[in-house]
Design brief:
This protein is an alpha/beta fold and 447 residues long. It has 15 helices and 11 strands. The chain folds into 2 domains: 280 residues, Vaccinia Virus protein VP39 (Rossmann fold, 3-Layer(aba) Sandwich), CATH 3.40.50; 124 residues, no CATH class. 39% of the residues lie in helices and 15% in strands. Helix 4 packs across helix 7, helix 6 runs antiparallel to helix 7 and helix 14 packs across helix 15. The structure holds S-adenosylmethionine (SAM). S-adenosylmethionine (SAM) binds next to strand 2 and helix 9.
Length: 447
C-alpha cells in the first residue's frame, strides 16, 4: 500500500491548506454581532486551490476548500459516521470525507459534475489506468475523425461555412470526435469516466471562448488566435497526468461508503435513510446565474445533453435561483417576515428589474431551501448539525439577506439552535456598481 492509513491525515495536511481560524467562533444566534474577517478573503472557497489534490481534476471556481470541510467536521466535536452534501458541485465534501474514512452522501444535479465526483471517489487502480492510457493512445492513432460524432451539438459549437462564430475550429472539433470515439470504446465505466472528466477539464481551454460567472464569452481577437489539435493533445496529456498522480498517490486510501446521487436534491434526499452527523453545503446563490450555462460546453461535447429539450429539463431540475426556464413559483411554508418585506420591496421596484419573475423567483428559492432543510431535519443525528454557506444577492438596490431569511425559516421549522455569521464580502454585479456589498455567511443549525 502506497499510503498507509497513519499517513492520510499528514498527506491531507500537505496537500490541503490549513484550516481557517474563524472556525472557533460562536454558537447560538449571533446574527447582529457577526464577526467579519478581512474583506475579500475566501475562507470557504477554493479560489487558490488549483494545485490541491483532486481539486485540480476540474477547475470549479465555486468549490469549497477541503480545509473548510475538514474544519466543519472538526467543529462537530466528535468523529462523524456519515456526512452529506446535497449540492455536491465538484465533490469537495465527498472526497474529503473519503480521505478521512468517513461515509458520505452527496447529490449533484449536473450529470457532468456528478461524474466528476464519481471519478474522484472511485477506487481506480493506477496500474489499470496506466494500461488504459497506452491503449487509448494506440486507439487514437487508429481512429479517423468523424464529424457525425458531433452531430448532436448546437450549430455554434463547430466552425462551418457561413457561420460568424464558433466555439471550436473545425480542426479541433474533428480531433475531438476522435477522442470521443476512443472514450466510447473504453469498457470499464470507472476508467471511461476518468477519461471523460480529463477531457472535460480541458475543453474550454481548447476553444474560442472563456466562461465566468456571467456565462460564456468569446476571447478577444479569437479569430486570430484559435486553438489547434496539438493544443488539445498537449492539454489533455497534462491533465491526464495530473489527475493520474492523485490516483497513484492516494491509491489504497480508506474505502468508506461514498454515495454519489445524480439528481435533484429536493427529491433525491428522500432516498437517504441513514442518520447524518453533518450536512455541509453551499447551494447556488439567488443571483439568477444558472450553473447549466457555466458548464454548458462540457455538458454538450461530452454528450450529457443531446437536444435543447435536455438542456431545458436540466435547468428545471436546478434550484430556483434563476429565471432561465419558466416554472411554477411558490413560497416557503414557514413564514419569514424578512422574506415578506424583501419580496414586497422587490415588487415595488418591478419596473427596474430586468425580469418580472425575480420577486417570485426569490420566494421560490427559499421554498427550495426549505424543502432541503426538511430532509436535513428528518436525517440529522441528535448531536449533528447543518452548515450552509450562503451568499446575498441584490436587485434594484434591494438586498436579499439570504442567511437571515434562512435563519427565520429554520427557527419556524423548529431547529433548536440557529447561528448566522458573516465570513466575507462579495463584489456585487457591475450594474450595482461592483462595490463590495454582498455578504457570504455561514448558517449553522442544530435540532
Ligand atoms: C456552489 S456549487 C457547490 C460547490 C461544492 N460545495 C464544491 O465544493 O464543489 C452548487 C452546486 O449545486 C448544484 N445544484 C443546483 N441545483 C441543484 C439541485 N436541485 N440538486 C442538486 N444539486 C444542485 C449546481 O449544479 C452546483 O454544482
Amino acid at each position: 500500500m502506497r499510503n498507509p492509513p497513519a499517513r492520510y491525515l499528514q498527506t491531507l495536511q500537505e496537500h490541503f491548506a490549513s484550516a481557517p481560524t474563524w472556525f472557533a467562533c460562536t454558537e447560538g444566534m449571533d446574527t447582529h454581532n457577526a464577526r467579519a474577517p478581512a474583506t475579500g478573503s475566501a475562507l470557504t472557497t477554493n479560489q487558490d486551490g488549483k494545485g490541491t489534490a483532486f481539486q485540480r481534476w476540474f477547475h470549479f471556481k465555486e468549490a469549497f476548500s477541503p480545509s473548510f470541510v475538514t474544519a466543519a467536521i472538526d467543529s462537530l466535536g466528535y468523529r462523524p459516521q456519515h456526512i452529506a452534501d446535497p449540492f455536491g458541485g465538484s465533490g469537495t465534501s465527498a472526497i474529503t470525507a473519503q480521505l478521512l474514512s468517513i461515509d458520505a452522501t452527496t447529490v449533484e444535479v449536473n450529470p457532468f459534475l456528478a461524474d466528476v465526483i464519481k471519478a474522484k471517489v472511485s477506487s481506480l487502480s493506477a496500474e489499470k489506468l496506466r494500461h488504459a492510457a497506452v491503449d487509448f493512445q494506440a486507439s487514437l492513432g487508429r481512429t479517423c475523425s468523424n464529424v457525425l460524432r458531433l452531430s448532436h451539438l448546437p450549430p455554434t459549437f463547430v466552425e462551418g461555412p457561413e457561420k460568424r462564430r464558433w466555439i471550436f475550429p473545425l480542426s479541433v472539433a474533428l480531433h475531438l470526435s476522435r477522442y470521443l470515439m476512443c472514450i466510447d470504446q473504453i469498457a470499464d465505466p470507472d476508467i471511461q469516466r476518468f477519461f471523460k472528466v480529463a477531457l472535460g477539464a480541458v475543453l474550454v481551454d481548447c476553444s474560442n471562448v472563456y466562461v465566468n460567472g456571467k456565462g460564456r464569452r468569446y476571447r478577444s481577437a479569437w479569430q486570430d488566435n484559435q486553438p489547434t489539435p496539438e493544443k488539445l493533445d498537449e492539454l489533455f496529456a497534462i491533465q491526464f497526468n495530473t489527475s493520474f498522480e492523485d490516483v497513484l498517490r492516494f491509491e489504497g486510501r480508506p474505502q468508506s461508503r461514498i454515495n454519489v446521487i445524480h439528481g435533484d436534491s429536493r427529491t433525491a434526499l428522500a432516498q437517504v435513510s441513514e442518520p447524518i452527523d453533518l450536512v455541509v453545503f453551499s447551494p447556488p446563490y439567488p443571483n439568477t446565474f444558472d450553473y447549466t450555462d457555466i458548464y454548458n460546453v462540457e455538458l454538450w461535447v461530452l454528450g450529457y445533453l443531446g437536444s435543447s429539450a435536455d438542456n431545458a429539463q436540466l435547468r428545471k431540475e436546478t434550484l430556483r435561483s434563476h429565471v432561465q426556464v419558466s416554472r411554477p413559483y411558490d413560497v416557503p411554508l414557514q413564514s419569514s417576515q424578512l422574506l415578506a418585506r424583501t419580496i414586497e420591496a422587490l415588487n415595488q421596484q418591478q419596473d427596474r428589474l430586468w425580469d418580472a419573475n425575480i420577486p417570485a423567483m426569490v420566494g421560490a428559492y427559499f421554498r427550495d431551501l426549505e424543502i432541503v432543510l426538511e430532509q436535513c431535519q428528518r436525517l440529522l443525528a441528535p448531536s449533528g448539525k447543518v452548515m450552509m454557506v450562503v451568499g446575498d444577492s441584490r436587485y434594484a438596490d434591494v438586498s436579499i439577506d439570504v442567511a437571515n431569511v434562512i435563519g427565520e425559516i429554520a427557527s419556524a421549522m423548529g431547529f433548536g439552535s440557529v447561528a448566522v455569521r458573516k465570513v466575507r464580502q462579495m463584489r456585487s454585479s457591475a450594474q450595482q456598481g461592483g462595490r463590495l456589498l454582498l455578504a457570504e455567511s455561514i448558517v449553522e443549525l442544530r435540532s
